[in-house]
């Protein structure tokens, strides 16, 4: 499965801190029903066995709704779960090495904070870029801030789709309009919301409005 710009409109990133007695896969299903177009499982504190179990359950939900599903950082879990792909950061396995592990048909996303990182990731086979943090975020405390101008410069320097991440809400989404991104990755604005499906719907509408401008 490959991903185009449409699939990257509202990119939901999981966080099990807000389960509130629910299952992660159940929350993902609510997000997808609401309007999430892409799902990444990102669980830094989870052991391998639990991580793989959650990945398989979420993959089943994503297949049901025909939504791409990738694993954050962990190439082994992505292979074991037969996920649609993997998303790696600058400190993780390099995109070319990931491509050799996963094969030509899987999705590879790469985090980038500079034009140089973005160009290199594209050259080495990335399918899309995640750029951020574009706003302050409590989800990733060590995240580097990326300015609007840098975000725009990255979009202009590559041909692959670019999404923004970091502290994005339906209220601030519009300020990213005109940067060239095709969508936004969201964690807490979806999964910390009391009504996940409603929150995803409102974010998807805000994203559609943002990319139209």
From TrEMBL:
GO biological process, any: thiamine biosynthetic process
InterPro entries in UniProt: Aldolase_TIM, ThiamineP_synth_sf, ThiamineP_synth_TenI, TMP_synthase
Entry superkingdom: Bacteria
Residues where 4-amino-2-methyl-5-(diphosphooxymethyl)pyrimidine binds: 40-44, 72, 111, 140
Molecular functions (GO terms): magnesium ion binding; thiamine-phosphate diphosphorylase activity
Binding-site residues, 2-[(2R,5Z)-2-carboxy-4-methylthiazol-5(2H)-ylidene]ethyl phosphate: 137-139, 167, 187-188
Chain's role: Condenses 4-methyl-5-(beta-hydroxyethyl)thiazole monophosphate (THZ-P) and 2-methyl-4-amino-5-hydroxymethyl pyrimidine pyrophosphate (HMP-PP) to form thiamine monophosphate (TMP).
Protein name per UniProt: Thiamine-phosphate synthase
């Amino acid at each position: 499965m490959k991903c185009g710009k449409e699939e990257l409109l509202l990119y939901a990133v999981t966080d099990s801190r807000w389960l509130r007695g629910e299952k992660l896969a159940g929350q993902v299903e609510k997000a997808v029903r609401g309007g999430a177009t892409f799902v990444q499982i990102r669980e830094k504190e989870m052991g391998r066995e639990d991580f793989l179990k959650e990945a398989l359950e979420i993959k089943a939900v994503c297949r049901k709704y025909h939504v791409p599903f990738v694993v954050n950082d962990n190439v082994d879990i992505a292979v074991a779960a037969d996920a649609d792909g993997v998303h790696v950061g600058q400190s993780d396995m390099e995109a070319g090495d990931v491509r050799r592990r996963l094969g030509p048909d899987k999705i590879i996303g790469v985090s980038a904070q500079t034009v140089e990182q973005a160009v290199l990731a594209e050259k080495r086979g990335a399918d899309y870029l995640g750029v951020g943090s574009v706003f302050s975020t409590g989800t990733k405390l060590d995240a580097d801030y990326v300015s609007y101008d840098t975000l725009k410069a990255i979009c202009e320097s590559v041909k692959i789709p670019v999404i923004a991440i970091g502290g994005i809400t339906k209220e601030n989404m519009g300020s990213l309009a005109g940067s060239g991104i095709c969508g936004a990755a969201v964690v807490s604005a979806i999964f910390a919301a009391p009504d996940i499906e409603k929150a995803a719907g409102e974010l998807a509408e805000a994203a559609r409005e943002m990319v139209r401008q």
